[in-house]
Amino acid sequence: MSKVIKGGTVVTADRQYKADVLIEGEKIVEIGENLSGDEVIDASEAYVIPGGIDPHTHLEMPFMGTTAAETFESGTFAAAAGGTTMLVDFCLPGADGSLLNAIDDWDRKSKDQICVDISYHMAITGWNENIFNEMEAVVKERGINTFKHFMAYKGALMVEDDEMFASFKRCAELGALPLVHAENGDIVQELQNKYLAEGVTGPEGHAYSRPPEVEGEAANRAIMIADAAGTPLYIVHVSCEQAHEAIRRARQKGMRVYGEPLIQHLTLDESEYFNKDWQYAARRVMSPPFRNKEHQASLWAGLAAGSLQVVATDHAAFDDAQKRMGVGDFTKIPNGTGGLEERMAMLWTKGVETGRLTPEEFVAATSSNIAKILNIYPMKGALVPGADADVVVWDPTISKTISPATQKSIIDYNVFEGMEVTAQPRYTLSRGDVVWAYGQNSQPQPGRGKFVKRAPFASASKALSKWKELTTPRKIERDPLNIPSGV
Ligand code: DUC
Ligand code: ZN
Ligand code: ZN
Ligand code: ZN
């Protein structure tokens, strides 16, 4: 049974052209003119793009005394409804600290639930010999080539610099890419205590206690530690100019540093925390917090210039009752917002429609760039024969107002509620299956999604030469002109 997507304009990260896309089973087999297949999917007046990849989600994650309410089933169905055909979720070690047990746990939660494909990033939340040893199996056997480090959440998930350096070196050795949540957890904690002591207990205290400076400091520190370890680095949820500047500077010096802004930081600003309605503001509490317009402009510029490569969501969705755990103390509001379903439409509306991004740059930022960074390109993130048929018929003629009443996410609100978007997926295909058809009452297909294994990178040689350089005493040349007379 073949399918042909007919009459659309194919958009890749490089170019646009009129063509039909022929799919057999799970794969794209041909792209060209006047193709025919057993089943025709209409793409007239629409774009045909690679399925979106959201590299940053927290589904059913135990966090801050509760568990994120979005499930693997609802989250992956919401993803499909928004044009996203793969997501990468953060796998967090439990009380026993074992990475491999954490993966088993995440597999158990996700396996029969997922409607589209997933993968995991492994979190490093401490350091010992067992973690060092398990990392090898995580990469070589479990197909996970990325490790996340929290520089904030002191006393819970945060790692110290020596732990981070050890883990970065291990990543370099194994051909894995380290990720960081860049916020200085020591300063955040001090600021939280200061504001609470002064009687600032509402959601505005969240914004005050996590200023851009703490993110800039941590981003710079992580970049220098990665350089010393001889490894590339990926900085998640870049929200401000200070962190973006650190990334620009590093890239200019030839360091391989990637930056991921979130759709929330691009489109929502810090005034949201000063809303008089506590619940409204608490729903928007996430870390890092939303910033002002100048920071937003910096992020948009970075996407256009290529100094920032990927737009994600950090989808960590807590319902209203969970958010109320922080009444009277902003540090107890579970951190996180949703966006999995809205990421593509919001980026199109606020990016492409406004002329900030080209359609090709939109495809790069939502799919192709992250597929390359994660080492799964062109199986994912590309429209070429042989690639997985993760394809979206992207319709720029459907506009809709975002509302919790129509969303597929099971959260009881939406941080983008009331905003108008000007495009939607007409069809979303995941490895050749239609998993979403706009206006046709599509239902979740739990269990059809697969776990995608990602091979390690061939980066170890750079790490070894860097390490040799740092551990070999330099020869200090004496400058003959600088020797004081009489010596
Ligand atoms: N930030 C959030 O807002 N939620 C989950 C984890 C994180 O770093
Ligand atoms: Zn410290
Ligand atoms: Zn984070
Ligand atoms: Zn996160």
UniProtKB/TrEMBL annotation:
It holds the Pfam family Amidohydro_1. Keywords: Hydrolase, Metal-binding. Signal peptide: none annotated. Gene3D superfamilies: Metal-dependent hydrolases (3.20.20.140), Urease, subunit C, domain 1 (2.30.40.10). Residues 47-435 form the Amidohydrolase-related domain. Its cofactor is Zn(2+). NCBIfam families: D-hydantoinase. Belongs to the metallo-dependent hydrolases superfamily. Hydantoinase/dihydropyrimidinase family. PANTHER family: COLLAPSIN RESPONSE MEDIATOR PROTEIN, HYDRANTOINASE/DIHYDROPYRIMIDINASE FAMILY MEMBER. This is Dihydropyrimidinase.
